[in-house]
Amino acid sequence: MSTSTKWLNEVKWDENGLVPVIAQEASTGDVLMFAWMNREALQRTAETGNAIYWSRSRRKLWHKGEESGHVQKVVELRIDCDNDVVLMKVEQVGGIACHTGRHSCFFQKYLADGRWETVEPVLKDPKDIYS
């Protein structure tokens, strides 16, 4: 793999030095989650082949699955037409991407009557994941 980081200069980072990232399951096309990366996170993700995000609340790098074991192995990285959103196609180890114990963080569906309905089951109780 090239050690050049010129490709990172093509990313349009926001005023906080971050870029939004969509994690999509490579095998199914399911959107798993949305998160943020800074330059170091994106570079290390590309170098290691494992998803590493930037936690805005903790102000540090977050290795997806470091506590849960539900790592994301990167299959492909793409950038959108404006160079300001990253799409990361991944293999979701363990089948759980969400801290709620679900496959996807997008488990609530809007209904015509103005309610959100949970449409995906909890695959594993979060207490059993993070204990």
Explain the overall architecture.
Zn(2+) binds at residues 81, 98, 105. With 131 residues, the chain is mainly β. The chain has one domain (6-98): Ubiquitin-like (UB roll), CATH 3.10.20.810. It has helices spanning 39-48, 126-129, and strands at residues 18-25, 31-38, 52-55, 60-63, 72-79, 86-92, 108-110, 116-118. Strand 1 (18-25) and strand 2 form a beta hairpin.
Give a quick set of tags describing it.
single chain; 131 residues; Ubiquitin-like (UB roll); two-stranded antiparallel sheet
Write the layout of secondary structure elements.
Elements: E1 18-25, E2 31-38, H1 39-48, E3 52-55, E4 60-63, E5 72-79, E6 86-92, E7 108-110, E8 116-118, H2 126-129
Parallel strand pairs: 1-6
Antiparallel strand pairs: 1-2, 3-4, 5-6, 7-8
Short précis:
The chain is mainly beta and 131 residues long. It contains 2 helices and 8 strands, in the order E-E-H-E-E-E-E-E-E-H.
Class derived from helix and strand content: mainly beta
Tell me the number of helical segments per DSSP (H or I, 4 or more residues long): 2
Poorly predicted sequence stretches spanning 5 or more consecutive residues: none
**Helical content band:** 10-25%
Under CATH at level 1, the class stands as Alpha Beta
Query: For the terminal residues, how far apart are their CA atoms?
Result: 37 Å
Given the C-alpha coordinates, what overall shape results? globular
By CATH, the architecture is named: Roll
Order of helices and strands: EEHEEEEEEH
